[in-house]
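Issue 218. Parser rejects a valid record. Input:
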Amino acid sequence: MRAARRFGGRYAWLAAGLLLSACSQPQLYTQESYVFGTRVQISIYGLEPDVAAKHANAVLKELDRLHVKLHAWQPSEVTRLNQAFARGEPALVDIELAQMIQQAANYAQRSDQLFNPAVGNLVQLWGFHQDQFAPVTPDPAALQAALAAQPSLDDLTWNGASVSSSNPQLAIDFGGFAKGWALDHSANYLRKARVMNALVNIGGNVIALGKKGGEPWVVGLQHPRLPEAMATLPLYDGEAIGTTGDYQRFFEMNGRRYSHVIDPRSGQPAQGVQAVTVLSPSHADAGTVSDVATKPMFIQGVPSALRYAQRFGIKDVLMVSANGDVYITEQLQQRLTWLKPPPHLYRLR
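Output the parser choked on:
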């Protein structure tokens, strides 16, 4: 058995992120860091390096703050809430976190609770609440107790700035929400700072502002089984892409792959899909939607994908099935440039 988190080496970042050539673009400034357990890259075009560096540093500082605040297992505002819920006690919440929780609750309802950030205990039982995880199988009794409780954000009761839970098994985990929300937060800062041409990449979740010179920004889509990009895609102002895959945080045991995406109905890691990528059109929550919308599609599979896409206002979807076949909407297919064409390509209808 073996455990893995993501493909290593320089090709992993190429595929998860950007196809940029800073050496040939003197007006392109890039800065990288490691936040939310993944690699982050801020790219800014057309500004003097010292000005671009100031804004990139400001974005990365905010991402570090959110990482600490939202961490699911190290001491954070989220773990403080979860401990209070487990004790049956109310807890104070600041405005920012309250807005996140309420927005996530709305998306959970829209996804039929397949995106369910209240099932942190299930994620923990599968060993994914640690920086270095090893193959484990949950204790059956603990798994059954977590499933029987059916926690959701609808179990929360608000009283001004205080929140309580009627369900002690409710444990918030923003793993399927935080990166997208952070994209929108970063884009808002950059727009207010008059940084009009930028690209923010948080582990393959990407939002574009403006252009890279006279051309749209171009990003690569990670191949779920090879350490390279399978396709490239132009991104236009305000658009965001999000991907959920079984290759990001996973382990293998007895020849089977177990990913960190847990089906809240069964308590088991979702099976049947290698990756889902969606393109969210430009709007205030484009990053968050691109992150969240992939979760019900990944869990429920190809037959229900377009139903959930419609609920989230998405028209562009790409899905890689368990055998490597690709299902894609017509409009997205027209925008892609394939680098590694799939064995079979089907229209997603």
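Fixed in the parser; the record now loads. The chain has a mean pLDDT of 92.
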